[in-house]
Amino acid sequence: MTDTTFDEFVRQALPGLARYAYVLAGDRHAAEDLLQDSLVKAMGAWSRIRRDGNPVGYVKTIMARTNVSWWRRRRPSVAVSETLAATDTALAGVEHRDELRRALATLPPLQRTVLVLGFLDEAEDEEIASLLHRRPATIRSLRHRALQSLRRNLRIDELRSLDRAADLQETP
Known about the structure:
Blueprint: H1 6-25, H2 28-44, H3 46-52, H4 55-74, H5 97-105, H6 109-120, H7 125-132, H8 136-170
């Protein structure tokens, strides 16, 4: 990919980068803004990025850092329960995608970002810590709290579905 022009790179990588931005931002419009800002930053550094040989990884890093920067600036005025809709690839094999999306939407942005980087990108704690300017122990703590919250929320939804099913069976 060393001879690839920026336009060619964008044409090839855009669908995957758009899905990644959507998972990070939790909203289609915010994801579009995030992707656009990240590509503008990448275009400015294209000669260096192209030389390094991993432009997709570089743009994903830009997106993650930009997303963290955005929610840090707007944190006091933004509700925590933003909608998160993940891609089919990210959630392959998950039977109840809608419940998972709603449960993810209840997480604070930093916890959601840690889960995205850890599970979708398979990044190590040290890499996530470096990216988010936190200590690895903090990343583990954030992941632990996020997963506890997801388990709690998903279990509640699961119990509600079981209650509905039981009600349907009792009705003549």
